[in-house]
Amino acid sequence: MDKQHNHQEPGHHKAHDHHEQHEHHDGHTHKDSNHSGQGQGSHDHHAMMIRDFRKRFWVSTIISIPILVFSPMIQDFLGYEWLLPGNKYILLILSTFVYFWGGWPFLKGFYEEIKAKGPGMMTLIAMAISVAYFYSAATVFGLKGVDFFWELVTLIDIMLLGHWLEMKSVLGASKALQLLVSMMPAEAHRVKGDKVEDVKLEELQKDDIILIKPGEKVSADGVIVDGSSYLNESMLTGESKPVKKEKDNKVIGGSINGNGSLKVKVVNTGKDSYLNKVIKMVEEAQKTKSKMQNLSDRASKWLTYIALTTGFGTLTVWLLLGYDFVFALERMVTVMVIACPHALGLAIPLVVAISTAVSAQNGLLIRNRTAFEESRKITTLLFDKTGTLTSGVFGVARYESINKAIKKEEMFRLAGALEQNSEHPIAVGIINKLKELKVNIPKTEKFNAITGKGVEARVEGKQVKVVSPGYLKEKNWEMPEGSVSSEAETVVFVTIDEKVAGYIALSDAIRPESREAIKTFKDNNIKTFMATGDNERVAKAVASELGLDGYFAEVLPHQKVEIVRDLQGKGEFVAMTGDGVNDAPALAQANVGIAVGSGTDIAAETADIVLVNSNPKDIANLILFGKATYNKMIQNLIWATGYNAVAIPLAAGVLYSAGFVLGPAVGAVFMSLSTIIVAINAQFLKRKMKK
User: Which span out of 67-76, 194-203, 631-640 was modeled with the highest average pLDDT?
Assistant: First the structure.
């Protein structure tokens, strides 16, 4: 049958592997990475730090209570007097513990920042609490002035609380990635002859046979050798419906088995598994710094220098104006605390961590952060046709009988008998339709190929032929009415005992999601074009049916790069979608390269973004989510910088003459709140993706 039907075969999508690593950013200095492990190590370290800050906060707060109770300033403010013998020494001892033990994370961070020649948030906090502590200690031993102990300990308590709450928010940002990491089961059921043994995943080898029981997670990438079931792959591919899998179908490690029992031959384990590649890709994207991240880093660095300069400048100005040292010192400490660039430092990394992990759960794998953020600028989309706008499967669109004596189902069944031994796309399409209809296909006798025209055989005593339109022309038979309705269809005719009995129309069906996706692009003022290797007739039919802005037919893969260049030459910001192998030059040339893959093929080295499913709706989601991500970054940057622009002058005391003074503890509350607001705002991205 392969030689008898003239039709271009659907495209095939392949992909390359990808090697990545990760350094999780949480505003604190730590580096992790080792799988299975990689994400888990970062997660455990982060959870340990949260526990540490929580413990330091509660212990420091409990010890701060007697400091507040025995502080002369608090007693004077509340109108009571309760001084113990050696009161100032008791305050010094308790404050020393809070300073060195409660303030240890900040002092350690200060040392690491100075060693790395990158003063930042920890430097500011450490300097603020150190100046307050050592000045207060000096007043105990005779320096003229008032101690600063209660302000010091409440400042440390609030900073510890702020960091604890903020780190809990940061941990929420990495939970999406942790869900991916935790998807793999700990053990597998390995089949050895008649026995089934439970082994750790690390012990699995390629070509091992594993048993997947109903309701269990698939323990490795592989191919089904026995059984059938529906698998839930939603956490891996974004495909919400369970997917039917039977013998010879691929399965992905981490997907959840339905009611059937499966035996699977292992193909990929460990670092080569699909899930591991996705996790590595997500971690790499979270680590990669884009233009926005670099902007945020530069702003944080400058804010640190501004805070140090403003802090010491504030101290100097108030002293020159004749105010006492304690007041001037309080202004300096408040400026340094409030100016901590923590919110600014978190503004971008938090959004990055959430967007990349949530995208991966929805079938969007981001390899290039900058390209993802710039997807908001896309003005033109160039689509590959097969497998993206269309299903990539040559299927039966319709079939009709023109002989009243023969029902269309009977005509179709007899035609199917001739196609059951062919691998041609038309034959496969007809057989798949018969299987879907659960029709028993009869056997053939005296099978014969009609060169260049079709096939013939005897089926149940009848002489049946499946032939091309050319055969009808050769016989001077009329084309049945209604047999050709779309330029995108390929039509074959069925004859029974030398009479035309009916026709079967096949096509690479347009995906139902394509129309919705194209509408979304039009609503967002994005032009859509299609580049396909198919002929002009088919390309025109698909383009007009979807309402595309234009199409390029009979295009060879290497010619697509010229199309991209031409569009860019006209001032368009171009996104190209392709299979990542043949389309590599065009993907590299495009402003945003989007590789479409399927199943375990996860994508070209030249692509910026990989779609696990070849679904055009995912591209629409990508662009809209890219815009939402960029907007969140801008919102966080505006909040973080705007907060400092207002708070620093207040901390310095510009409204002192109007009777408004911001204390260090209140400044610490505002600083912590700004950080938590930035963290919570970033979390709203998850809702955007769900919409």
Answer: 194-203
Supply 494's token pair.
């069925």
3-state SS, residue 153: helix
Q: Are strands 499-510 and 390-401 parallel, antiparallel or unpaired?
A: antiparallel
Burial of 527 (0-12, 13-18, 19+ CB in 10 A): middle
By residue count, the chain amounts to: 691
Nearest-angstrom CA–CA distance, 70 and 82: 7
DSSP 49-87: HHHHHHHHHHHHHHHHHHHHHT-HHHHHHHT-----TTH
Per DSSP, 341 falls in state T
Closest CA to 656 of 322, 428, 350, 358: 322
Q: Is 88 helix (H, G, I), strand (E, B) or coil?
A: helix
Which positions are annotated as active-site residues? Answer: 384
3-state helix, strand, coil in the chain (%, to 5): 50, 15, 30
Q: Kindly report which listed range (38-47, 347-356, 627-636) carries the lowest average pLDDT score.
A: 38-47
pLDDT tier at 678, thresholds 50, 70, 90: confident
Least confident of 24-28, 313-317, 469-473, 537-541: 24-28
Kindly indicate the confidence band of residue 598, based on its pLDDT and cuts at 50, 70 and 90.
very low
Output the CA–CA distances (angstroms, integers) from residue 416 to 383, 465, 632, in the order listed.
34, 10, 56
Residue 482 vs residues 401, 411, 502, 536, 667: alpha-carbon distances, Å: 11, 17, 11, 22, 79
Residue among 226, 276, 278, 273 nearest 249 (CA): 226
> Mean pLDDT highest for which of 59-63, 338-342, 382-386?
59-63
Mean pLDDT, to the nearest integer, of 502-513?
Answer: 84
Q: How far apart are CA 151 and CA 148, in angstroms?
A: 6
Bridging pattern class, strands 574-578 and 462-467: unpaired
Torsion 83-88-93-95 (CA) sign: positive
Question: Of 518, 558, 524, 232, nearest to 390 (Cα)?
Answer: 518
Q: What does the pLDDT read at residue 30?
A: 35
Contact 266, 212 (CB under 8 A): no
Q: How far apart are CA 434 and CA 440, in angstroms?
A: 8
- Are 67 and 102 in contact by the 8 Å Cβ rule? The answer is no
Residue 358: per-residue pLDDT:
78
- For 103-134, how does the pLDDT look when each residue is reduced to its tens digit (9 = 90+)? 999 999 889 988 888 777 778 788 878 887 88
Give the per-residue pLDDT at 19. Answer: 31
3-state secondary structure 259-310: CCCEEEEEEECHHHCHHHHHHHHHHHHHHCCCHHHHHHHHHHHHHHHHHHHH
Measured CA to CA, the distance from residue 210 to residue 266 in angstroms comes to 7
Q: Is the overall model pTM greater than 0.70, yes or no?
A: no
Answer whether residue 519 shows pLDDT above 50.
yes
Question: Tokens representing 280?
Answer: 């590595």
Residue 603: which region, alpha, beta or left (left: phi > 0; alpha: psi -120 to 50)? left
Q: What is the CA radius of gyration of the chain?
A: 34
Rounded CA gap, 504 and 397, in Å?
A: 8
CB distance 521 to 381 below 8 Å: yes
